[in-house]
Amino acid sequence: MIDLWPQDLQADERQRAPVTILKEQASLLGQKTRNLLEAEVRQRAARQGFSLDVFFFDFYLVAPALGHYRFKLFSAWHDIRFYPLFVQLDEDLEREVCHKGEREVRVDSEEEFLQILRKIFASQKTRGVIQALLAQVA
Prior knowledge:
This protein is α+β, with helices and mostly antiparallel strands. The protein has four helices and five strands. Strands 1-2-3-4-5 form a five-stranded antiparallel β-sheet. The longest helix has 15 residues, at 18-32.
């Protein structure tokens, strides 16, 4: 049998999938709050009007001591190529993070994704939700 596949079919170790970045950040929240709060990344099916090769993720803040209460912070999606990636924000985060009236922010690289995540996590909205949850579980 003739093998027609290229020999160098390997993952690019320099490129991380957006879901990997989200899961890393989710893990770090637990460490920072002594596991009083956690974060969770959930993958979901494509929305109506999107093709099936789109990957959707929701990022939740979770309070295990409050019956695993979940607060959806934002959503993100991309096709098989990772970028462009789109981050969907609620109205409060959109005002703090973008200042452009954009509820869906287009992200064209891993570096841009990290920047937008940094802004989301440092926002007053995120800090306020985390402080409120911690006050209830501490």
